[in-house]
Design a protein that fits this description.
membrane, 11 helices, Alkaline_phosphatase_core_sf, single chain, transmembrane helix, transmembrane, 492 residues, Phosphodiest/P_Trfase, alpha/beta, 4-stranded antiparallel sheet
Length: 492
């Protein structure tokens, strides 16, 4: 397992830490106004209160005393019950398995499920998992860049992209000029140790119904035919759910300890129409329906309460359109950036100049032009040498990352040259500090407390969460070994 000491994978100033969001309630000042102000006017003609006045004051005092006593009793009762509830929560242990003989983790990804989508429509099945499980209250924080392949592989390796090697959806290996695409299955690209490999290393079974990297034969993982599905976007979601459910019809010793399940929605719709279109609402409802199908199938088999379900997304989504474009050709008065230099435009600008060009000088001239006020939307793009990027991004320690990286403001896009093409839709890949890039984390099962809210955290922590549930030793990673203790219920 990974210790909390500085990792050999990151320099000390880049040491990954769980990101928490602290919320404090502002307590109002106690009221100081008396219930019954007494008259002290010495000019009164009668220095002694009249009998009627004395009676009113006496009754008022009795009522005030009763109110105060009632409030004190109510407060004490509330305090006792809250303290008892907190004590019970602290003393709660994981629930015993009723049918399965060993722990099982089912990791589900809903691609592009932006945090907040669950409020767009009625999602009874997601709500059921939240109500009876544990939720990252303000969403799951993706790694940078907030793209599909880097984030899915970070979730299953616990590594930042600079260390697991998948630094973008598309990139070039500078050593040999080879191109990586989302169809590249050669082991050389995929570094680190994904969960399915870790699980198999411990003599357990794993199954993957679509997940970036799962088709790669690597280490002890050979993508077995019955337990590893090659990606095919045309396979109906219902078929995917039913295939996973069939694993629970196997003899106990044959049931995979770790399973993945993947849905393309609502990312598919988000790119076409942005995050606020009715198509997104329909897609979210569709994903929720598939979760209902899964839950019903597990209940029919009597194992729903035994399975640790972890529902996540890989990133969020933000709307884009024509008025938010930046064109590299507009920098020609300061420096020409040929398209051959550019490996990625948006939302992550990645530039690798050929030898003979100083990356530092290129960055300086680009930023000079962008800050001049003479480049449309230039103020919404900032270009860096990769080693000068904010350390919180953990995006420099790999030769696969080009030397020049541009950070684009939320919702803006970079293109090479102007055109009349319409540009409205949705995108992701931006700085992971943007709230719009957050996704969801909902977990349900014997190791997760019911109705619990936890602070947001980065998805590199999920690897250690899974290995802890399965009680196996994980490979070195960028997560914290202590993190699972803050999320999981302790075993008896």
């Amino acid at each position: 397992m990974v210790s909390d000491s500085p990792s050999i994978l990151t320099p000390n100033d880049n040491k990954p830490m769980p990101i928490s969001i602290k919320e404090e309630d502002d307590l109002p000042n106690a009221a100081t106004t008396a219930l019954l102000p007494f008259r002290t006017d010495s000019s009164s003609s009668d220095s002694h209160p009249k009998p009627a006045t004395t009676t009113v004051i006496f009754i008022s005092l009795v009522i005030s005393t009763c109110i105060a006593l009632s409030a004190a009793i109510a407060f004490a009762f509330l305090f006792f019950n809250v303290s008892s509830a907190n004590s019970e929560s602290r003393n709660e242990f994981s629930r015993s398995l009723t049918k399965l003989k060993n722990p099982v983790v089912l990791l589900i990804s809903s691609d592009g499920f932006r945090f907040g989508y669950q409020f767009k429509t009625d999602t009874p099945n997601i709500n059921r998992l939240i109500k009876n499980g544990t939720e990252a209250e303000l969403g799951l924080i993706p790694v940078f860049p907030t793209l599909t392949f880097p984030n899915h592989y970070s979730i299953v390796t616990g590594l930042y992209p600079a260390y697991h090697g998948i630094v973008n959806n598309y990139f070039v290996d500078p050593e040999n000029g080879d191109f990586f695409t989302m169809a590249s299955h050669e082991p050389k690209w995929w570094l680190g140790e994904p969960l399915w490999e870790t699980v198999v290393n411990h003599g357990l079974k794993a199954s993957t119904y679509f997940w970036p990297g799962a088709e790669v034969t690597k280490g002890s993982w050979n993508c077995p035919k019955e337990y590893c599905m090659f990606y095919n976007s045309s396979v109906p979601f219902e078929n995917r759910v039913d295939s996973v459910l069939k694993y629970f019809d196997l003899p106990s010793s044959e049931i995979p300890s770790f399973m993945t399940l993947y849905f393309e929605d609502p990312d598919h719709q988000g790119h076409k129409v942005g995050p606020d279109d009715p198509l997104i609402t329909e897609a979210v409802a569709g994903v929720d329906k598939m979760l209902g199908r899964l839950i019903s199938g597990l209940e029919e088999r009597g194992v729903f309460e035994d399975v640790n379900i972890i529902l996540v997304g890989d990133h969020g989504m933000v709307g884009t359109c024509d008025r938010k474009l930046i064109f590299l050709d507009d920098l020609a008065n300061w420096i020409e950036i040929p398209k051959e230099w550019v490996q990625s435009y948006s939302p992550l600008l990645a530039i690798r100049p050929p030898s003979g060009f100083s990356p530092k000088e290129v960055v300086a001239k680009m930023n000079e032009g962008l800050k001049s006020g003479n480049v449309d939307n230039g103020g919404y793009l900032r270009v860096y040498l990769k080693e000068e990027l904010p350390s919180r991004l953990h995006y420099s320690a790999s030769d696969r990352i080009p030397p020049i990286i541009g950070l684009i403001e939320e919702g803006f896009k970079v293109e090479q040259t102007r055109s009349k093409r319409q540009e409205c839709g949705g995108a992701h890949g931006y700085d992971n500090a943007f709230f719009s890039m957050r996704s969801i984390f909902v977990a349900h099962g014997p190791r997760f407390a019911r109705g619990r809210k936890v602070p947001s955290f980065e998805n590199v922590q999920i690897y250690n969460l899974v290995t802890t549930i399965l009680d196996i030793n994980g490979a070195p990673n960028n997560g914290s070994m202590s993190f699972p203790q803050s999320i999981l219920l302790p075993n008896h």
